Amino acid sequence: MGAQMNGSHLFLPYFQPKIRFMRLKLATFSDFANQLYPHEADYLASIQNFSKGINSQIINTIKFNSHNPQKPRIFDPTIDKRTYSYVKSWIVQSLDKADVDKFFEWLAYTEKQVILDSITPDEEKEILSFIKTIGPSQYFFLRFYELLQYFRDYLLIRLRNRIYKPVNDYLQKHEAAYHHGMAINIQLNQAAEEIIRQHETLDAEPIHYSDFLKTTFSNPNLDGYTRYRAAVRLTFLYYNYREFENLRVVYDELDTLFKTDVFYSKRILANYYSNRAMMHSKLNELGLAEQYGHLSIRQKNSDYLFYLANLCGVLLRSGKYEKALKLMSSSIPELKKTSSFYNKIGFASFYTRTLVFNKMAKNAVSYASTFLDAYKKEIFETRWHLFFSAYLQALLNAENYSRLLSVAKRYNLLALEKKIIDKTVYMPLLLWYNEVALYMEGQQSKEKLVETILSSARMLLQNKYKAGRIYELLENLSDSIPSEVAVIRQKLCEVQNN
Asked: I need a labelling partner for 386 at 20 to 30 A (CA). Which of 78, 307, 477, 491 fits?
């Protein structure tokens, strides 16, 4: 009787469902909060102005957890579930209001309504309300201005002077800002053509665009879309010239801006995180690179495979081979969804390398061979050096030396690599793999092997970025030719010490 009359036992049937319900509600809220990016949490914390301190407490917990995912704080289970529901609704509404992509969707829809003479009175009121808040520094100011041009024409032909006047006043007031922004975007297009041409064909020297791009990006009076286009071009430019410290300055400024609503959307944030991951990887800051890489793949978008491949490259450099394989294998279904061959080839190349590092070289050869048969034309149009570096590495690790030599000869890979190696960021991997295969097949002496690799490695020492990668890439050869790699390392050290 004593045990049955225990007070806590008597109340358990009443409290247990409530406890389970609260845990379920908190789990749902926690899942929602954990999907927020750190910059989203920072922005929300900066604009929150709750009258109730308990709401601020929840936002501060979200902010802390977003920056400390390894040691998160537990959300207070004693807080009423309605409070969590309210905070969640406030977060969604606040981010939607700041989201430039959602504003673009509204622009595109409303422009269609105007052009097709289908706009409703409520939609007209919405346009007029934005006239009061959208200025030249807003992200999609240029597109909004063009919408108003269509709308003014729509109003004018219908003699609707009362609404026509504020629309026309806005267009006249900001006409100079609009034409200035359009002129800058024409220059951005010209800069992009030269920067990409240098990246692909080496016959351009676009470094003179650096000052223009920096000035454009840093100008707070320009619309956000134009400024971010300048940042993207600066990223390409600094990658071409391996000026990663200059790129860090740009990204540190972006880091501050992303804590506001200037450039905000989940799509743009994911792009920023991926680019930042690549930058930290090039600077050999692999911990930061992995952190940003994981943030970039939190949301799946059209560039998900590209971001995933970048993260995989970081994990492989960090020796986290199993983690890379798990991520890549689970994302193979995404490969079928993308129409971007650039992303397809990048994914296939890094997946091949991931299999190699996980001691599955034969699987890697099979996968890469099948991919080459299916997309040979597309590979040579875009990322042939990346793909064949992975494919030949797989063949070398699978000890399929004769096939490696055959592939290199069939596609004239060494001649293609020689054309680009001096003026690009590429390493002479195809040459090295081919030399090792010749040696293993008895068609090359040890002395000739060492001298060929050593000779090309000496030239790499003149390039700061390439010099930093030599020993990492030689490590990839050490399983096949350990003693020879040791000799090459020793001789390189002698060169550097002299």
From this structure: 491
Structure tokens at 373: 């048969």
- Token representation of residue 67: 């920056």
Q: Which two tokens stand for residue 436?
A: 């090792």
Q: Which two tokens stand for residue 186?
A: 């024409």
B/e letters for 460-473, b = 16+ CB within 10 Å, e = fewer, are: beeeeebeebbeeb
Whole-number Cα distances in Å, 468 to 274, 275, 473 = 22, 20, 10
3-state SS, one letter per residue, for 106-143: HHHHHHHHHHCCCCCHHHHHHHHHHHCCCCCCCCCHHH
Q: In this structure, what DSSP letter does residue 206 have?
A: G
pTM of the model: 0.87
Q: Which of 200, 151, 197, 195 is nearest to 171 (CA)?
A: 151
Put residue 116 in one of left, alpha, beta given phi > 0 → left and psi -120 to 50 → alpha: alpha
pLDDT tens figures, 128-176: 999 999 999 999 999 999 999 999 999 999 888 899 999 999 999 999 9
Q: How confident is the model at residue 389 (pLDDT cuts 50, 70, 90)?
A: very high
Distance CA 232, CA 275 (A): 9
User: Residue 74, Cβ neighbours under 10 Å: how many?
Assistant: 9
Sort 211 into a burial class: Cβ within 10 Å, 0-12 / 13-18 / 19+: exposed
Tell me the two tokens of residue 38.
Answer: 């750190």
